[in-house]
Amino acid sequence: MRESKKEKIQIGKKVEITVFGDDKYPDVYKSKIDDINEEEEEVYIGLPIEKGVIVPLRIGSKIKISMLEEDAIYSFTGKLKSRARKPYPYFKMDYPQKIVRQQRRDFVRMTLNLIVSIIIKEEEELIKPKPKLKPKEQEKETKEGKEKEKEEDKELKVVTMNISGGGMYIMSGIKLKKEDKMYVTFTLPDGTACKNIKITIRREQELKEGKKIRYGYGLLFENMNRKLSDAIVSYLFGLQRDRRKKGIEI
Question: Into how many domains does the chain fold?
Fold first, then answer.
């Protein structure tokens, strides 16, 4: 077995299971790699559990195993060879001959129209040293400073054209400046709240609509935590599956 495969397929690693061509199991199930039999070149994966009940995936089913890494998503496909319930519920697959790697943020990008808020913070000026103030004066200045800062922040409502785990494409009637500090806040249809995510402009497009000019911006999420990024990707996977079932182009 190749070293690169050994690095990615590890005991205890969390995985997502997708079953192909079986309407009885339409969901994506979470599980983990329980064991690796190097002599038989097999991988043992825990049977998924939904609401406290084991999901009895069928023997012979074609399945896809996805592993989320920091930089990318690795996946492989194969057939479920056999199942067992002792010493724990698991199923066997042949060790994969091929593992596909795709960038995490580019793994799924879906057309999705959301109204999002962009907070624009103007480039801050250098602050000159100030004399030491008395406690009450300092408290008053701090309060006034926060109110002033709030007033200086600009909020812009825009519409997304598409979204991925690493960014979004928006349309705006207002031209944005790359040097401004910008943050985006939005909520996915499933209720996932994404607040004050730092964004940078990766690409800009000017579109003329008659006498009007609109701007398209490809935005990159900066320093988004792994949990939130995974939640966005997970939602988009579900949306992708639903649209495919309905025959909607994606």
Answer: 2
124 burial level (CB within 10 Å; 0-12, 13-18, 19+): exposed
How many angstroms separate the CA atoms of 248 and 51, rounded? 30
Please state which of the ranges 14-23, 59-68, 111-120, 188-197 shows the lowest mean pLDDT: 14-23
DSSP state of 106: H
Mean pLDDT confidence for 136-164: 71
Rg (CA), the chain: 24
Q: Quick check: is 27 in a domain?
A: yes
* Listed residue (102, 116, 113) closest to 72, CA to CA: 102
Separation CA 33–CA 49 (nearest Å): 14
Given the DSSP bridges, would you call strands 82-84 and 42-46 parallel, antiparallel or unpaired? Answer: unpaired
Asked if residues 183 and 206 have their Cβ atoms less than 8 Å apart, the reply is no
Q: Is the model's pTM score more than 0.85?
A: no
pLDDT in tens, 165-187: 889 999 999 999 888 899 999 99
- 176 and 158, same structural domain? yes
Q: Which residue range is the domain that position 167 belongs to? A: 109-131+152-245
